[in-house]
Write the structure tokens for this entry.
Amino acid sequence: TQLLEQSPQFLSIQEGENLTVYCNSSSVFSSLQWYRQEPGEGPVLLVTVVTGGEVKKLKRLTFQFGDARKDSSLHITAAQPGDTGLYLCAGRGNTPLVFGKGTRLSVIA
Amino acid sequence: DAGITQSPRHKVTETGTPVTLRCHQTENHRYMYWYRQDPGHGLRLIHYSYGVKDTDKGEVSDGYSVSRSKTEDFLLTLESATSSQTSVYFCAISRDTYQPQHFGDGTRLSIL
């Protein structure tokens, strides 16, 4: 069974701070996706990374796929209250998608 | 936003009753999925479909059945609901198994 471990589970920071969320596995994934979910809604795709070592930027969010395609990170620069939400990583291996349990981020103004 | 509609959005029912949740898509995507989301467990795959009448089990399929008689509709049935099936259920769609999934807004199901 392929598993994805996310850390930290919970993160509460002040507006303007930087943060990094990690997604780790002992399994290799062909691709990895990051989603953000807000209360009462379904997850929304932020990015897909496919190549080992790949880095993608989405405004203040930077996503990296590990060289061995077993891990990924999400870095947010100068966090804003609008970044508050549940961040989920999901890996595509030999099953449709495996999701991590998520990191719940709260950005306080 | 991807055209995905889940119904009902909220439901309260009693243990032992049958429950059917519906997912309707207007995107003509081949793949459709049912997940449940619970605190401490994240999103877990129940069943998925890769075409009309083609379905397969996910990680937590016991107690659930699915049917897909049309491309646009994917039904999730709890034949005899139990309190352990209280959860938020999400439907998702994708063009193929390698493409990102697009999610509906969920159904909150409470079984008393």
Notes: Chain A has no helices and eleven strands. Chain A touches chain B through 20 residues (CB under 8 Å). The radius of gyration of chain A is 13 Å. Chain A has a mean pLDDT of 94.
